[in-house]
Amino acid sequence: MFGIAWDFADARDKEMREDERIRRLLSESAPAFRDAVVAGFTDSPENMRGVATDATLDQLIANALSLRLGDDRFAQEVYEDIRDQAVRTPERWYDVEVKVRLSSGDRDHRADVSRLGILVSWEYTVVPSRSVQRFACTGDLDEFHELVTDVPGTSTWLMTPRPGFDPSDPSSFELLAFSVDGEERPVRRLQRKSGQTYSVSIGDDIVREQRPVRVRHTYRTIADPANHRLFLAIAQPARGVSVQVDYSSADISRMSVTDMVPTSRRPYVSQLPAQADGRELTIDIPGWIQAGTGFTFVWTLAAEETSRSPAPHRGPSTPVA
């Protein structure tokens, strides 16, 4: 009985000593475990794929931003904005080339209205998220707001109906061509009272295989030259964007561009020299830009330049900021 009692007491004491040893080991090894986990997260995204859910990743990023910025609320709202704009967007565009050609001489003789012809070509590489791409022109503001929510499935052009500008007329807006990897796709047109819609099939197999393709489409439209501006927006997050506007065939003497690009990389704007035959403005943006980024091109008509009388010379002026 004494031996049994001794074994029982010794076993209990041994168990307590073992528990204490394990707790000491865990306490001493905790910094190493922590460093190993952090190193695993920061070493490669693949290390986090199997152990972190989307919600966990969101919280990790928000916590890291909070520590980096020193403001919990600011970090949370900044990340939510980035997440909604970048993470949840269905497509990303690469090597985006936009070419715009403006031309004068388009006139609606029935309404006796001068119009500025606009030919726009888009080309970019993308993994399509929709098998059908649509292009809509509408004069209904409510319909426009409804259609712009269907990005990137529908590209929408708003045109206010007035003499010479009918959003349902192909002379006001027309999709001329659409190709995928150089292969032309048939274009179908549907006319409505408030506008018109063009649709093109990209291909279910491309969407199912999530295969990157080079998309190119060209459309033409019109604008009132007296509006003095043209706005182009990038519908999806894009990397390597170049926008070129050729106004050699338009009665435009000067053109400038205002960009809304929230990036630390300054866009590069260039124009052809005055000695060149043509007139062309180009803006290049390196790196990524977010969806909704826009470019406003503003011009001065040649008739407005010639109608101005030269101001008397008053010496150097002081710039005002």
Describe the model.
With 321 residues, this protein is α+β, with helices and mostly antiparallel strands. It folds into two domains: 2-87, no CATH class; 93-306, Immunoglobulin-like. It contains seven helices and 15 strands. The strands form three sheets. An eight-stranded mixed β-sheet has the order 6-5-9-2-1-11-14-13, with no helix packed on it. Strand 7 and strand 8 form a beta hairpin. The chain is elongated and about 120 Å long. Residues 309-321 have low confidence and may be disordered.
List the topology elements:
Layout: H1 2-43, H2 45-49, H3 54-69, H4 72-87, E1 93-108, E2 113-126, E3 132-138, H5 141-147, E4 154-158, E5 173-180, E6 183-184, E7 188-191, E8 195-201, H6 204-209, E9 213-223, E10 229-233, E11 238-249, E12 252-259, E13 268-271, E14 280-289, E15 294-301, H7 302-307
Parallel strand pairs: 1-11, 3-4
Antiparallel strand pairs: 1-2, 2-9, 3-8, 5-6, 5-9, 7-8, 10-15, 11-14, 12-15, 13-14
Helix pairs in contact: 3-4
